[in-house]
Amino acid sequence: MFAAVPAICYNGEVMSSTSARILLIAVFIARGTSFLFSKTLMQSLPPMSILAVRFLLAFLILAVIFHRKLLHCDRNSFRGGVILGTLYTLCMIFEMFGLRHVDTGVSSLVENMAIVMVPVFTAVLTRTLPKKMTMFCAFLAVVGVGFLSLTQHSSSGSHAGMTLTILAAVTYAVCIMATEKVSRDAEPVTIGIIQLGTMGVLSLTASLITGDFAMPQTGRQWALMLFLVLLCSCFGFAFQPLGQKYVAAEEAAVLTVVNPLTASLMGILIAGESLSPMKITGYVLILAALFLYNRNT
């Protein structure tokens, strides 16, 4: 589907665009596991505390491993990390508070409508008409969200949860586009580390202001937190800028299809989330939109 085009990696080694796409697929799979871990942790810890501990620990771990890169951090890398960290903090706030009221599979599928939002936003910014297939995929995705919304009506706050999840999708699309921009003339791993530090500081500040900061106490809480820190954050967030340095924003959006597939399967197989005919219809419509767009990119 994509031609393998050689590119120069951040450390001077040759890296093909195919390798960058494989890295992004692994990143999005790792990110997909975070929905279930986060939802489980929120049963005993406040959302902003989870974000603060998760991203500060991830920042400290990567800062130790890549301390030389941080010591030689240039202005573009620092600015790019702060910009992405701010945008992703907003996205994660919408995701976490929405995830409190909707199923993990529903949350991940709706949020990953970013796959069709990116080309639409790009068309608006460039003042060009989106492709007909893009608009058709966007229509399918919106109808699918409608079906999923109807399946969540039984839980308290579900309407607010769906609204927040849709806002997470919008901000996620903006994050994908911004990542492509800031990664072009900067050191991508450094950007990812600064991004995590920014997210941790902003989340901790919000948690302290609201007065609900709490650290994990039990072994189970720490196990879930370490999964979020090591798999979803250290790897999932920090290495996305590296992959996107060699992959266009629209192509990166296509690859995010593995994120909702991972989260949906985990929700059904591990968390025992129910499947109704209406939910299956919503899943099929959104996944069809993602795959159709994928085939025609």
Rounded mean pLDDT score: 83
Terminal residue distance: 9 Å
Query: What level of helicity do the residues show?
Result: over 70%
From the alpha carbons, calculate the radius of gyration and give it in angstroms.
18 Å
Largest sheet properties = 2 strands, antiparallel
Strand content: under 5%
Note the topology.
Layout (H helix, E strand, L loop, with lengths): L5 E3 L5 E3 H16 L1 H8 L5 H19 L1 H5 L3 H25 L4 H8 L2 H13 L5 H20 L6 H26 L4 H23 L8 H17 L4 H5 L4 H7 L2 H12 L7 H19 L2
Antiparallel strand pairs: 1-2
Helix pairs in contact: 1-11, 1-14, 2-11, 3-10, 3-11, 5-9, 5-10, 6-14, 7-8, 7-9, 7-13, 8-15, 9-13
Task: Describe what this molecule looks like in 3D.
This protein is mainly α and 297 residues long. It has one domain (6-295). Helix content is 75%, strand content 2%. The chain has a two-stranded antiparallel sheet. The termini are close together. Mean pLDDT is 83; it is low at 1-14.
